[in-house]
Specification:
177 residues; alpha+beta
């Protein structure tokens, strides 16, 4: 399962190269993004945090490899989908809920750049449904089962996901290759 990696800023839509979940996990848990993540989390307003994220963080498109970041430029779907949970009251409680859900397998789970959200990467089977159908189905399941709302922009196959520092990120051993 490979997907595209992009260097900052977000306006850069040309991927640098393809990467794996394992490599991404190593970056997230190492000190690679520690300083910039800390800088974002101490910003005084949400607007400043957003401006910093889009200018100082590298990012990936977990759902696939692209010629350039655009839904119409997908070369290969990775079989992964990312869900974004923002402004959580209890990040650790939601983290445990997602990790312990018996119906949906977690591939990668990490705290968002702001520190008050989560990025949840799950495998999907495109032989049984489309990317859009998977997004809607999982989003509806999360709402009905756990009362969790997801950022609707995740339905976009070219969805950018910022990389940040989380020494407690989780990588399912099944995806560590």
């Amino acid at each position: 399962m490979e997907f595209s990696f992009y260097t900052r800023p977000i306006s850069n839509t040309l991927p640098q190269r393809s990467v794996t979940l394992s490599e991404t996990f190593e970056w997230i848990t190492s000190d690679k993004y520690e300083f910039v993540t800390r800088r974002i989390r101490v910003a005084s307003t949400k607007e400043i945090r957003q401006k910093l994220k889009t200018s100082i963080l590298d990012y990936v498109t977990f759902s696939g490899e692209f010629e350039w970041r655009n839904n119409n430029e997908l070369k290969t779907h990775s079989g992964l989908m990312v869900f974004d949970f923002d402004d959580l009251d209890d990040v650790e409680e939601v983290r445990q809920t997602l990790l312990n859900d018996p119906s949906i397998e977690t591939a990668l789970l990490f705290r968002s750049p702001s520190g008050n959200g989560l990025k949840w990467v799950v495998p999907i089977d495109l032989d049984s449904a489309t990317h859009q159908e998977w997004f809607e189905g999982i989003a509806n399941y999360l709402k009905a089962t756990h009362g969790l709302g997801v950022d609707p922009s995740g339905k976009d196959v070219a969805r950018a996901c910022f990389l940040c520092h989380d020494p407690n990120a989780y990588l399912n051993p099944k995806f560590s290759k």
